[in-house]
Amino acid sequence: MKEKKTGFSNDELNLITLAKEYSDEGKARALFEELRWPNGPVCPHCQNDGKAKMIYQLEPKASSRAPARKGVYKCDACRKQFTATIGTVLEASHIPMSKWIMALFILCASKKSVSALQLSRMIDITYKSAWFMAHRIRFGVGPENSNPPTLTGTAEITYRQVT
Q1: Which terminus of the chain faces fewer neighbouring Cβ atoms within 10 Å, N or C?
Q2: What's the CA gap between 34 and 29, in Å, rounded?
Q3: Helix or strand or coil: residue 34?
Q4: Distance of alpha carbon 116 from alpha carbon 127, whole angstroms
């Protein structure tokens, strides 16, 4: 299967264009799904890629008043629900996806380390949330992480082990 191309090139990617293009949650989630699953969604529970059994996106019922969570998929093989964040450092986080994408870009694009206070100022979140995000991102690229990183490409992150 052919890989999809993302909506940007590495030459034109900077924080301003990222903030303009992907400040909408739907677009940010679509970008993350595109980067995580270039050939379509894959169930993190049973590794079904949609060829053997179908994977479909959940839609709200017509009779239901409550909106369905966006970005939720269901696997016909194992009958479990999942999103693109399952199995990543973004899992179980209530921080918007657009903020995560900006934080990932800031931490990966800076030559030196970025403090949580600076990150909180740059993406307009609380210090506690910025510390949480920076901690999770650094853990995701650190040597103690047993899972290989899902996103690929060149990244430069300062990692310092405190003893």
Answers
A1: C
A2: 8
A3: helix
A4: 6
Same domain, 126 and 59: no
Identify whether residues 70 and 93 lie together within a single domain: no
Structure tokens that stand for 131 in this block: 């510390």
Nearest to 156 by CA among 107, 119, 93: 107
The range of the structural domain enclosing residue 71 comes to 42-83
User: Does residue 34 sit in the same domain as residue 57?
Assistant: no
How far apart are alpha carbons 28 and 99 in whole angstroms?
A: 9
Which residues have CB under 8 Å from 93's CB, separation 6+? Answer: 85, 100, 132, 133, 136
Asked if residue 25 and residue 53 are part of one domain, the reply reads no
Please indicate, yes or no, whether residues 94 and 132 belong to a single structural domain of this protein.
yes
The Cα–Cα gap between 131 and 86 comes to 21
Number of domains in the chain: 2
Structure tokens at 121: 């100022």
Contacts of 60 (CB under 8 A, 6+ apart): 66, 67, 68
Could you identify the residue written with the tokens 């059994």?
53
The radius of gyration computed from the CA coordinates of the chain, to the nearest angstrom, equals 17
What tens digit of pLDDT does each residue of 28-84 get? 999 999 999 999 999 999 999 999 899 999 887 777 776 667 899 999 999 999 999
